[in-house]
Amino acid sequence: MSRHLLHLEGPSPGRQLQGGGNKTNVALVVLAVIASIAVSALFIVFLYYCHIRCKVKKSDGHRSKKRDDKLPESNTISVASWKQNDSQVFTFKQLQIATSNFNQCNVVGHGGFGSVYRGVLSDGRQAAIKQLDCSSKQGDHEFRIEVDMLSRLHSPYLVSLLGYCADQDHRLLVYEYMPNGNLQEHLYSDGASGNPPNLDWETRMKIALDCAKGLEYLHECVTPPVIHRDFKSNNILLDSNFNAKVSDFGLAKLGSDKVGGLVSTRVLGTHGYVAPEYALTGHLTTKSDVYSYGVVLLELLTGRVPVDMKRPPGQGVLVSWALPRLTDREKLMEMVDPVMEGQYAVKDLIQVAAIATMCVQPEPDYRPLMTDVVQSLIPLVKLKKGSKIVSTHDFQHRMVTFKSSSIDSGSSGAGEN
């Protein structure tokens, strides 16, 4: 009886073990199924990732091949960050036809790395076509910098690049045509028939303002800033209405993106326009361009070239001769270009002299920003009725960001003043 009661009181130990074993088996099966699903999902995700990566690589390879077809290889400049743009790619044959086989009658200028021809493109547009010296490695470097720079920079105060040619060994740049040539031709013309006309005060002030806006755009609307490094009257071109545009970016260099930063580089530029600290140390900042701008402003004011050793002692270097006179009212009146006699108000003349004085200060920290120069010149420019002065900052929606490796492989380092 007692054994029977014991049997009825609960399951035997053997049954308990059998039930626990079933639960364990079910749990293991569930875990195995979940693990299989997770592994399958991860495998599918991995396959999809590989598929997308393969597509991206093919796309990048295709774009890279297109870029390499358009531009010659070079160890001096990387085109890894090249952007597609509106610049047209021309064949050498097309530009031969446009310039009547580079007829000497169509030569409109000469640069450090080649001649510039007037041409008519197949769509009827006039263009200035610069042919670079094929034997010059520096010319090839200049070509690549100009294409990369001007393909990205867009301002009404910079000359537009219409296209380029990199056909075999030929290197040509195609710009918008500027009918009135460069500023230098007008400043030092005798005004005789057949020569460029002399410029009056109002036109010179408008040119000064346009140039200041061009440099302001390079310094303020580009990251890091672009330092032109060869700003001079010969590189300021004039359209049919004498609006000025900055040209020739072959020596341009990316500056430091640090406040007060500098880059160290070889000293390049044109004698008489180069800032003293850059000439002595190779340290380049946006204030180097400000100095060059000040020299051009003195040219506009006096009608004198920056360096002329044929002049009497003490007058050969424009900046050295002009600085002590710019703050003396009587001497200031005497140094103004005689062509502009009676065309200006004395207070305006004093204001321009003050701007020029600040721009050519020996110490770069004492020079103004180009933004300040623009604001100082605006009140001096009298425009025709209906005209409007457009602020450079109206174009800030076109801010440009450069990578140093894409343009500028020649700097030896960066630091701070």
From TrEMBL:
The chain crosses the membrane at residues 26-49. It is a single-pass membrane protein. GO terms for cellular component: plasma membrane. Its main location: membrane. Residues 102-381 form the Protein kinase domain. It catalyses: L-threonyl-[protein] + ATP = O-phospho-L-threonyl-[protein] + ADP + H(+); L-seryl-[protein] + ATP = O-phospho-L-seryl-[protein] + ADP + H(+). InterPro entries: Kinase-like_dom_sf, Prot_kinase_dom, Protein_kinase_ATP_BS, Ser-Thr/Tyr_kinase_cat_dom, Ser/Thr_kinase_AS. GO terms for molecular function: ATP binding; protein serine/threonine kinase activity. Keywords: ATP-binding, Cell membrane, Kinase, Membrane, Nucleotide-binding, Serine/threonine-protein kinase, Transferase, Transmembrane, Transmembrane helix. PROSITE patterns: PROTEIN_KINASE_ATP (PS00107), PROTEIN_KINASE_DOM (PS50011), PROTEIN_KINASE_ST (PS00108). Its EC number is 2.7.11.1. It is an enzyme of class 2 (transferase). Belongs to the protein kinase superfamily. This is non-specific serine/threonine protein kinase. It comes from Ceratopteris richardii (Triangle waterfern). The lineage of its organism: Eukaryota, Viridiplantae, Streptophyta, Embryophyta, Tracheophyta.
